[in-house]
Task: inverse folding
């Protein structure tokens, strides 16, 4: 390290600027995990609905929880206490264990009960009916429930409110023990919690889940019971935590490995410290650029962005390897710069194409990459040389590297192997069965299989909505939506009877159409008639004649009420679940029919065809597959454009067809080899494989450029060999570590780049040099 | 009516004896589980012209469990297990609710099962206990310790003779009350019209 005063001042200044920028960036850095950022904008209504449903839909907000590990009575009590504890929580719109509560309906809605209950559809409020009801109420009063019902009876002798609440229960009633939901075996108490945050908001999901766990922990002081929380939100929290944890562990291992490697390669501490500065500059520049251009940095951008260290680290290493005693680092960097700049520029231009891919996540990634590679390149060129010690080793003097170079030089140059390789790879891709592409969106952040099974089991016990099929109706008004839903109710009930589905849910189950409410209203008798009917009904009952005045008053009030609207119910505590079933969206209303326990999707498709032209059966899987395919098309277009630009940049820099081919061949072949190897091993490619391919290509280009650049000066050759060995060694180590990850995203990147580094290195050695390296390496330099 | 009640209570048994040792009394009431006892329940309510009367058996199988089988004038079964109450009547869907929603029933359950277990401490946790009378004819007054419960259930009175409880009287905040006649008392000839005063007198009367 250069210990002169200006150098130390530069070192301190640089560090301070980085620290300040780093502080500024992290201050309001928002890390998002919404996978939708990595999907293209939807083109079909199904895709648009999918994107809405993925993040906001009712199914995605539902967490199912189970409590196990104690006697059923205790589990039931705990379940109850948990619901009570989370009652007023901001994190949850509903937490329920199935227990019905008469207090669930706010007072202002009480008088609507005759309009909401189906009783009047089939049963007039006549004397005979009222008499039977009053007799039944007398028995209720003498039962242990008596004291509880007594205050309610003067107002509601037919217990209409209870019927309304019963109708609002899930259709596919789960098993109950001690009044709360249990699994079929009676070993687990079950609850449903609907979060206010969408599934892809892991911060708020985590807050919700933590609140749930805290509330449970305070009820489980002896620790014998076990709470399991499952659902899209819980998974996104879990996966985010695991990704973060694993990325951190791998990052630490990579850092340690890198330091060791640098110490071995340069035998001094100085280079390790100085080469960290361009790297840090790269990271901070990337983050700064993304946070300035975008609202939130996606976790994937972040994770992937930092793997670019694998590229950015190479720049200072080239300089360090080419540095020799007595030679000014400024001269060394000037000699290197044309090659380095070609590498940086071509990689940046290739990534720039992603900016216009129409996929926000990719644009972020491109932005991050371009900013960080440019920062690493520029700081290596303009700042780093001032910090480097002019003393130290000259790798050009290394006997070992000299022998190695000569051995490499004597390797055969099987140029014929290139076309053979292409043919073999093409054959693998063409003839090995299996899908080349991964269309399943969920495979990107897959949830462990046992957790998915457990989730499925809990959902089927509870009858919570199926995550795949939804019937979506778009209308101009909520009344229109309710009318259509009401018309669908009978066919839906038939599907339940046929066992095609276990249950269904829609907004008209909660709010009947205005027309239906008015029809019920018309059946309510006027005051005089009802008073007379009631007097007749009271004969032969133990009730006093004057106690039911509130009932008479309520019925009269109900006769003149404006029908209960979705909007009015939405403002009540019951509104949360309704909101998700009937949502206003830009002058339109989207109504959902959710299904539970779907056995026969074909029957649902048939239902959808009869439901009206504005109704669509949304198969979330199908829509997501088509979205992924569309995303890939855009990505491949970007890739093609990127390769054209890459060739152009290299061609402009080298201005010699043969040199251009020699430089590009290893990279192009490597890409083909990688695709074939992945396919041959049965790994369908995802977005991340493709991005990793570009990363590998960028590395390959750098190696080839440097090999090609190596002059016929044996010292210079050894320095280049040293640089490329250190660079590829460190990159290999970082990505081999990633390849060990259990997380598919990290593994995809790791495996692809690891293979890419090996293939690029070998192919660059075999194909980039001219046949006689000692004679053939020219003094030509790429143009700056 | 209230004045008449207090007058009766003051004149009848209390005059004869000083404070009783409640713990010792409750211990004597212990019955090994399972135990079954006949009952007749008379329910007074402001909504009713005349009280409702049902009768049947109470089954006690251990703490926090109670089965109430009504056999007359119709059949109805109630099962209390922990916090859960299920009421089923012929030809009607089972109705169930949480015990905490029915403080009256909860009070009865705690008092009844704790007495049958002879567990004075269990009673004492939920109620202030005061016993009056003598061993032959006694009265235990339970006042809920929890103010919210006390608002719904001001007090529970238990009348008994020797080691047998005879009446459970639970008043509620609606101005109504439930009087549970136990054992032999369940088979009393009830007069028409039946009043609370008559029942109170009967509950506090010594052996014939």
Result:
């Amino acid at each position: 390290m250069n210990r002169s005063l200006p150098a130390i001042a530069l070192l301190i200044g640089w560090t301070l600027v980085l620290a300040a920028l780093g502080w500024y960036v992290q201050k309001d850095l928002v890390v998002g995990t919404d996978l939708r950022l990595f999907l293209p904008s939807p083109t079909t209504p199904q895709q648009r609905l999918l994107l809405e449903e993925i993040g906001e839909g009712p199914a995605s907000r539902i967490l199912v929880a189970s409590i196990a590990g104690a006697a059923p009575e205790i589990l039931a009590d705990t379940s109850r206490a948990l619901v009570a504890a989370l009652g007023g929580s901001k994190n949850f719109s509903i937490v329920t264990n199935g227990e019905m509560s008469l207090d669930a309906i706010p007072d202002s809605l009480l008088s609507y009960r005759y309009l909401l209950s189906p009783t009047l559809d089939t049963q007039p409020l006549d004397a005979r009916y009222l008499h039977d009801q009053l007799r039944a109420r007398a028995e209720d009063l003498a039962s242990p429930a008596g004291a509880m019902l007594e205050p309610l009876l003067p107002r509601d002798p037919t217990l209409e409110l209870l019927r309304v609440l019963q109708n609002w229960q899930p259709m596919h009633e789960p098993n109950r023990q001690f009044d709360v939901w249990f699994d079929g075996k009676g070993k687990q108490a079950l609850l449903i919690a609907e979060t206010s945050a969408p599934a892809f908001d892991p911060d708020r999901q985590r807050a919700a889940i933590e609140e749930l766990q805290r509330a449970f922990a305070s009820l489980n002081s002896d620790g014998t019971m076990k709470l399991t929380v499952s659902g899209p939100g819980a998974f996104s929290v879990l996966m985010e935590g695991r990704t973060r944890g694993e990325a951190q562990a791998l990052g630490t291992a990579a850092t340690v490995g890198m330091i060791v490697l640098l110490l071995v390669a340069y035998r001094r501490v100085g280079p390790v410290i100085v080469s960290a500065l361009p790297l840090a500059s790269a990271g901070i520049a990337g983050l700064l650029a993304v946070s300035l251009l975008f609202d939130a940095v996606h976790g994937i951008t972040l994770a992937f962005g930092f793997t670019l260290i694998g590229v950015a680290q190479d720049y200072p290493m080239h300089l360090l390897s080419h540095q020799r005693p007595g030679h000014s680092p400024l001269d060394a960097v000037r000699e290197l710069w044309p090659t380095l700049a070609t590498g940086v520029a071509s990689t940046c231009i290739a990534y720039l194409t992603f900016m216009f891919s129409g996929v926000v996540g990719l644009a972020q990634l491109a932005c991050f990459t371009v900013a960080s590679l440019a920062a690493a390149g520029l700081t290596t060129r303009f700042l780093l040389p001032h910090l480097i010690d002019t003393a130290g080793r000259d790798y050009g003097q290394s006997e070992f590297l000299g022998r190695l170079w000569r051995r490499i030089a004597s390797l055969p140059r099987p140029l014929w192997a290139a076309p053979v390789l292409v043919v073999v790879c093409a054959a693998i891709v063409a003839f090995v069965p299996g899908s080349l592409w991964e269309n399943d969106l969920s495979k990107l952040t897959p949830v462990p299989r046992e957790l998915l099974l457990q989730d499925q089991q809990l959902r089927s016990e509870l009858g919570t909505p199926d995550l795949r099929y939804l019937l979506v109706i778009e209308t101009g008004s909520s009344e229109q939506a309710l009318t259509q839903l009401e018309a669908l109710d009978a066919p839906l009930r038939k599907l339940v009877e046929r066992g095609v589905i276990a249950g269904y849910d829609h907004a008209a189950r909660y709010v009947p159409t205005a027309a239906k409410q008015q029809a019920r209203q018309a059946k309510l008798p006027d005051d005089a008639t009802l008073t007379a009917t009631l007097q007749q009904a009271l004969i032969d009952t133990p009730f006093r004649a004057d106690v039911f005045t509130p009932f008479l008053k309520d019925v009269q009030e109900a006769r003149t009420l404006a029908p209960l609207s979705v909007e009015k119910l939405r403002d009540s505590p019951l509104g949360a679940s309704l909101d998700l079933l009937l949502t206003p969206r830009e002058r339109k209303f989207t109504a959902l029919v959710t299904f539970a326990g779907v056995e026969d999707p074909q029957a649902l498709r048939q239902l959808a065809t009869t439901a009206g032209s504005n109704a669509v059966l949304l198969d979330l899987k199908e829509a997501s597959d088509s979205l992924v395919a569309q995303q890939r098309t855009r990505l491949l277009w970007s890739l093609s454009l990127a390769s054209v630009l890459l060739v152009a940049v290299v061609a402009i820099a080298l201005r010699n067809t043969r040199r251009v081919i020699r430089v590009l061949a290893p990279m192009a072949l490597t890409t083909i080899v990688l695709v074939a190897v992945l396919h041959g091993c049965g790994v369908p490619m995802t977005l991340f494989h493709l991005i990793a391919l570009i990363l590998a290509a960028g590395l390959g280009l750098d190696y080839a450029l440097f090999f090609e650049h190596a002059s016929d000066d044996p010292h210079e050759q050894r320095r280049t060999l040293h640089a490329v060995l250190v660079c590829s060694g460190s990159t290999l180590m970082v990505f081999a570590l990633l390849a060990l990850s259990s997380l598919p995203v990290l593994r995809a990147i790791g495996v692809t780049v690891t293979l890419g580094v090996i293939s690029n290195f070998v192919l660059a050695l075999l194909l980039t040099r001219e046949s006689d390296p000692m004679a053939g390496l020219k003094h030509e330099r790429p143009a700056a | 009516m209230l004045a008449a009640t207090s007058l009766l209570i003051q004149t009848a048994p209390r005059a004869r004896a000083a404070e009783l040792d409640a713990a010792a009394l409750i211990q004597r009431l212990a019955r090994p589980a399972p135990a079954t006892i006949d009952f007749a329940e008379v329910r007074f309510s402001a909504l009713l012209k005349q009280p409702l009367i049902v009768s049947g058996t109470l089954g006690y199988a251990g703490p926090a469990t109670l089965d109430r089988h009504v056999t007359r004038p119709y059949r109805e079964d109630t099962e209390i297990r922990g916090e859960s109450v299920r009421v089923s009547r012929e030809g009607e869907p089972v109705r169930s609710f949480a015990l905490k929603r029915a403080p009256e029933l909860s009070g009865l359950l705690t008092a009844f099962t704790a007495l049958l277990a002879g567990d004075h401490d269990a009673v004492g946790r939920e109620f202030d206990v005061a016993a009056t009378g003598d061993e032959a004819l006694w009265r235990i007054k339970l006042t809920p310790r929890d103010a919210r419960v006390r608002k719904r259930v001001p007090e529970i009175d238990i009348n008994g003779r020797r080691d047998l409880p005879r009446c459970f009287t639970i008043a509620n905040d609606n101005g109504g009350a439930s009087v549970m006649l136990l054992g032999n008392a369940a088979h009393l000839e009830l007069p028409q019209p039946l009043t609370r005063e008559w029942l109170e007198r009967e509950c506090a009367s010594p052996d014939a």
